């Protein structure tokens, strides 16, 4: 799933290569990705791209006051091309959901929004005001904007596990499954620690880890081509998706906890005082 660093890099890419260009045509291959009906996507035609930004994990391309906002979900991606096919795509065929031509079709550049797999979550809104999108209105503060006191206030009194708290977009926006694993490993905190019961020292380590991990990931990602971002993300991960491999800090074996549709990774020595977490659904810390 694209998270804050990758979406920031995509926004940077659009600012560098799309701003100043005109939307010549938008092709919709999957109507289900459109979460708004008015204005229609054809209202983007003829508008100049004037900016691009990010709200948590939501990508925003401003087309002279009309916003194309994208949430890439778990398996979505933005694929930039210097030249796109002029032929309109066939609806429902392949991973392509939406195509944006930023120049004469068949001659100019643009990008495809694609989504792999059968579980579809890619979402697109076309709005005159980003605050018209409930999901964005309900976002918590951006992870990179948080001060240490603000983080402490957000977590105060919360009873859920720390892993769940820092990936709750209504609480803190931008952190997903992969970077939460990296943040908790860097801070040497258990994913199952109670969010509202962290010591002052643990809060300080968590805040420092949030900024260090995300800042480093943004620095590695910004300036990369969209095609290389996934590989760049994987290359910088120390525990996430590294089940069975040695922890780069202590050498212990990276472990995994699996749930119905996702999993997370951690290092027992670094994070849970050497105690493995039970690898079963609804697992609890082994006593």
TrEMBL record:
Residue ranges annotated for the Formamidopyrimidine-DNA glycosylase catalytic domain, each copy included: 2-93
Known catalytic reactions: Hydrolysis of DNA containing ring-opened 7-methylguanine residues, releasing 2,6-diamino-4-hydroxy-5-(N-methyl)formamidopyrimidine
A Pfam family matched in the record: Fapy_DNA_glyco
Record-linked InterPro entries: FPG_cat, FPG_N, H2TH_FPG, Ribosomal_uS13-like_H2TH, Znf_DNA_glyclase/AP_lyase, Znf_FPG/IleRS
Reported cofactor(s): Zn(2+)
Molecular-function GO terms, alphabetical: class I DNA-(apurinic or apyrimidinic site) endonuclease activity; oxidized purine nucleobase lesion DNA N-glycosylase activity
FPG-type domain residues: 238-272
Enzyme Commission designation: 3.2.2.23, 4.2.99.18
SUPFAM superfamilies: Glucocorticoid receptor-like (DNA-binding domain), N-terminal domain of MutM-like DNA repair proteins, S13-like H2TH domain
Keywords: DNA damage, DNA repair, DNA-binding, Glycosidase, Hydrolase, Lyase, Metal-binding, Multifunctional enzyme, Zinc, Zinc-finger
PROSITE patterns reported for this sequence: FPG_CAT, ZF_FPG_2
Similarity comment: Belongs to the FPG family.
Name of the protein described by the UniProt record: Formamidopyrimidine-DNA glycosylase
Organism name: Kibdelosporangium banguiense
């Amino acid at each position: 799933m694209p998270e804050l660093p990758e979406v920031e890099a995509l926004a940077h890419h659009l600012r560098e290569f799309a701003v100043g260009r005109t939307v010549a045509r938008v092709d919709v291959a999957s109507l289900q990705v459109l979460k708004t009906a008015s204005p229609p996507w054809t209202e983007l035609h003829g508008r100049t791209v004037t900016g691009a930004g990010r709200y948590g994990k939501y990508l925003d391309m401003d087309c002279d006051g009309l916003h194309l906002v994208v949430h890439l979900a778990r398996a979505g991606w933005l694929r930039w091309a210097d030249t796109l096919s002029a032929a309109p795509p066939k609806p429902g065929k392949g991973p392509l959901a939406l195509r944006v031509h930023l120049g004469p079709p068949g001659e100019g550049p643009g990008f495809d929004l694609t989504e792999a797999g059968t579980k579809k979550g890619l979402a697109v809104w076309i709005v005159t005001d980003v605050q018209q999108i409930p999901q964005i209105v309900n976002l918590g503060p951006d992870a990179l904007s948080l001060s240490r006191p603000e983080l402490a206030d957000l977590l105060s009194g919360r009873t859920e596990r720390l892993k769940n708290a820092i990936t709750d977009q209504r609480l803190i926006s931008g952190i997903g499954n992969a970077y939460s694993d990296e943040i908790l490993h860097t801070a040497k905190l258990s994913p199952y620690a109670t969010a509202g019961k962290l010591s002052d020292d643990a809060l300080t380590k968590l805040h420092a880890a949030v900024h260090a991990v995300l800042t480093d990931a943004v620095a590695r990602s910004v300036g990369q081509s969209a095609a290389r971002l996934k590989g760049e993300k994987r290359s910088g991960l120390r525990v996430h998706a590294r089940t069975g491999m040695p922890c780069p800090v202590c050498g212990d074996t990276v472990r995994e906890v699996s749930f119905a549709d996702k999993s997370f990774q951690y290092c027992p020595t670094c994070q849970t005082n050497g105690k493995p977490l039970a690898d079963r659904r609804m697992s609890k810390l082994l006593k």
